Amino acid sequence: MQNTGLLRRLAAMLYDTLLIAALLFLVTIPFIAVRGGEPVETSENALYRAVLVLVVYTFFVGFWIWRGRTLGMQSWGLQLETANGDRPAVAQATVRFFAALLSWVPLGLGFLWQLVDRDRLAWHDRLSGTRLVHYPKPGKS
Length: 141
Description:
Elements: E1 2-3, H1 6-34, H2 46-66, H3 71-75, E2 78-82, H4 90-104, H5 109-112, H6 123-128, E3 130-134
Antiparallel strand pairs: 1-3, 2-3
Helix pairs in contact: 1-2, 2-4
């Protein structure tokens, strides 16, 4: 086990972004169908916006509390843990989700912070009391 580097973290996020994009396309289909094939304007449809946020929230928080990792994290050998090595609880995962959004706001500074942090933690790691660790496959690092 070792703390994870920024590039491995970003690679897992890229994988998860592709999965989330596919999910968001799927949940958009009924909204388009109801509109007779017309595009859905997010600025005009609060329900649609809420559903999109709920899907993204459920993806991350659900995987974090169920397995301690999203599919992208699993691909890169990453595991989300609390300070004592457990999977996070719902409240902790929820704090991490919203804190991660805040980490992106100042041009990703919250993620880049791990480059200078003594424990290699990003802002959302610190705020939620969690950490990403890398468990290399046997014989690899």
